[in-house]
Design a protein that fits this description.
- The chain has about 500 residues and is α/β, with parallel strands linked by helices.
- It folds into 4 domains: about 55 residues; about 80 residues, no CATH class; about 110 residues, Thrombin, subunit H, CATH 2.40.10; about 110 residues, Rossmann fold (3-Layer(aba) Sandwich), CATH 3.40.50.
- Helices cover about 60% and strands about 10% of the residues.
- Helix 6 packs parallel to helix 7.
- The longest helix has about 130 residues.
Length: about 500
Amino acid sequence: MAIAGRDAQGAPPPYALIVFVMLTVILAAGAVWLYLQWDGSAQELAEVQDRQQRLLTKRQGEIEPYKTVIAEALQAPGRPSVVDYLISQRADLRSDITGDEGLSNADVRQKIAAARQGARDSLGPAEGPSFSGLKLLEVIKTLSDNYTSKSQELSGCESSLATAEGRAKLAENRMKAIRKTADENQAKVDAQMQARQTMVMAEIKKWYANLDKLRKDLIKLRKTLDTVKGKARDDIEAIQKSLTQHKERLQALIEKVQQWRKESGIDFTDMVGQPDGKIVSIVPGQNKVFIDIGQGEHLPLSVKFEVFSPTERITESSPSKGTIEVVRVGPKLSECQILRTAHEQSIMAGDLIVNAVYDRQNKYVFMFIGEFDVDGDRRTEPNGAKSVEVLVKRWGGEVVDELKAQTDFLVVGSEPRVPKKPAEFDLAATELYEQRLKERKAYLDDQNRAVELSIPMLNHKRFLYLLGLGNRSPFVPLYHKDSDPWPP
């Protein structure tokens, strides 16, 4: 059969050719497919390289931060691409910053700017700095520091509040104790008041019981009072009659005194100008003199005398040669210091000395009215008269507050000044105005009374002059040395 087959064909079988043709077609098709695949891969490779070039250049891939990002992307769970890793990191940052990972960059910047402004507004212009140039972490740190500071302040306030609450609690406990004590005391007081009320009611009952008796006694007393009134009326009439008789006798005595003063021819005003003594010696160069008055004439210390020439009569207008003051009193002689000497005058032995208050034998009685200028500033003082009264009493005189026939001299000061009448609503000024009116009326009444009683009135300036207070000039006080012989 095989031989018959080969003989029938006369050539090799066609299967090899068919196989060859099929392989050639397959190879050609494979070559075409591979070419097409290679062309697509080249295009895809070009696209990938272009995309990679836009995302990361070869030079950038060699820089450390990009290498670190690539390494972190390779180590991330699921091995995401670098772009996915960066996108996820970007989303996480936006979520951490704004809470919304889907916001755009412009929205994120707007929210960051709003957060900075809110931080500045929360701190206030006084405490908050300008956050416009600060990073977000610096803003957060500033807010954190401020929060820490405020937290510390709050902690201090809470501590103070706790201390205050403790004190308040202690005070509340004390208050409760006080209230408890007060309630106990109130209970005791109520019990005492109840007991006293019971006693009072008992006393009221007794008072009512005695009321009728008192009324009867009152009727008797009224009858007795009427009798006493009648007797007292008779006694008053008798006293008034006796008083009238005494007034008539007093007036007669005053008239006799006035007549005696006129008949005697004595000028009582000049009595204050009569010399009290004289200067017996002068110590040269020591501003010191000795007078003929001593302990026997009851001469007090610090008395001032005006010095007059013995060749002239001492009158109201006589100028003095100076002023001396007693600094030491001896048995018969006294040492005096020269306080003042008149211009172109010199104090000499034999000069007379005068003081309006002091007298060797008599004790004059004075009364002072008005206001006096004692310190020489040409302004009167309301209490100036009291100062002069002290000197008068110290130097042997007597001062009275009421003008009587036994008064020797009335020293008349300046008339009390009455201010302008104030408005009615000014009570203090009105009271002062009324008081000054009363003082002025008493001032005038005393002068009229002195005229009626023929009591000499002395001008206060002349009186102060004769006391050694009318002429003042600076002087250097001299003191007695222990080595000087004494008494003279």
